Amino acid sequence: MNCYNCGALLTENDFCTSCGADVRHYKRIIALSNMYYNDGLEKANVRDLSGAVRSLTECLKLNKFNVDARNLLGLVYFEMGETVNALSEWVLSKNLKAEKNIADDYIGSVQNNPTQLENLNQAIKKYNQALVYCQQGSLDLAVIQLKKVLSVNPRFLRAHQLLALLYIQAEDWEKARRELNKCCRIDVRNTTTLRYLKEVSGAMVEDEAKGNHRNRKTEEVIKYQSGNETIIQPVNVQEPKRSFAFLIYLLLGAAAGLAVALTLIMPSRMQGLRAQLNEESRTVGEQLEKRNAQLNELQTQVEQLEAQNAQLAEEVNSYAGTDGTLQTVEDLLNAAYIYLDTPEDIESLAQALEAVDAESMDSGIASEAYRNLYDKLLELTGPEISQACMESGNTAYRDGDYDAAVAELERAFRYDETNSDALLLLGDAYRRNGDSRNATRIYDQVMELFPNTENARRAENALEELEG
């Protein structure tokens, strides 16, 4: 363990023998962080992945420089099918420790396999489409889409859970249980999975209980004791005829009953059947008209849904690239790759960051890990990009190309909002270009953001000259 102040190796003392800093609390924090890391490692070994995520997250809260914990957290995310979260952790780990870091191998194994990367992107795209179908109430389409997701990425835990939830909605308990068992094989102690399993088990027990209370057939025999013997007597068994007279009387009675039925009962019965037939025909006609109206209504709904589907397809295409991958994820991964591979290529890095769709993050579509990776790249590269844009804008300003100077200086201030020199020069470029309104706005912004500075004084003088 090294001192947080001077980096010297610490001893058993509660102070640094090199610089004298008090390291008592620092040692406790590092020890607690290592405890969480060991707990996360143990949980990951027994496939308690959700518990491992919680422990490793707590570990990184206490010591964000714990590279081993960050790499392990990325592996756990990747095992759960959360590819973007995994890549985010590995990129941050690479930034913290550039040399001899196994995160290089993890990132390379994903980026150097185009087929795997394409499959992961397709899984993300189809999962998002399944969520859209669920929000629209098209549960059958959502089930089909989730099956495609799991055929591409069978370890995608959230897709398994959503598919199980749809089966629960349809009361298909057996399929729901099979999906939840797959979830347990991925993450044995996931709270959501266990809660769904409890609901499914309870519903299956209730169905079995209802099946056991069905009416049973009555026994076909009667048993009773007579002394030491058990008498078994059949039920509903007719005794044999004693003579042919009984049969003759029976036939005569049947003939008389038939004659009465044909002469008295059948005409009224036929009339009743005709009336019933007419009533049923009228009812069928009304139902047919109702069905036709419902069919027309359903046809209208189908046309509306087709229009909505076309609109959603256009929206999805706006986010997708020509190869079918999610363009926003692809652009962000491209920017991260440029930073890791050629950090000195500032212009390419700036172009890659500007290609990222910032509106998708503001609209809430992007995940938290996606936004964290984007913000971290801006934090690490923003000042250098701002300085490069500042130099380009200054050159254009000196050459009299004020339109180009305005564009470059706006980029410079957008990447580093503490660059007061770029903002002041932007106001001068607007003024030289004849745009007094924007020049006044920029000078006011310099005085507001950087009060009591030399640039604020220059902006005030320029504003007085402009207004005078």
UniProtKB/TrEMBL annotation:
Taxonomically, the superkingdom here is Bacteria
PANTHER family in alphabetical order? LIPOPOLYSACCHARIDE ASSEMBLY PROTEIN B, TPR REPEAT-CONTAINING PROTEIN PA4667
Q: Where are the transmembrane segments?
A: 244-265
Organism, as annotated: Candidatus Eisenbergiella stercorigallinarum
**The keyword Amino-acid biosynthesis is annotated on this UniProt entry:** no
Q: Which PROSITE patterns does the record cross-reference, listed alphabetically?
A: TPR
Q: Which residues form a coiled coil?
A: 278-322
Keywords, A to Z, come to: Coiled coil, Membrane, Repeat, TPR repeat, Transmembrane, Transmembrane helix
Q: Which InterPro entries match?
A: CellSynth/LPSAsmb/PSIAsmb, TPR-like_helical_dom_sf, TPR_rpt
Name of this protein:
Tetratricopeptide repeat protein
List residue spans for each TPR repeat.
Answer: 386-419, 420-453
- Does Membrane appear among the keywords? yes
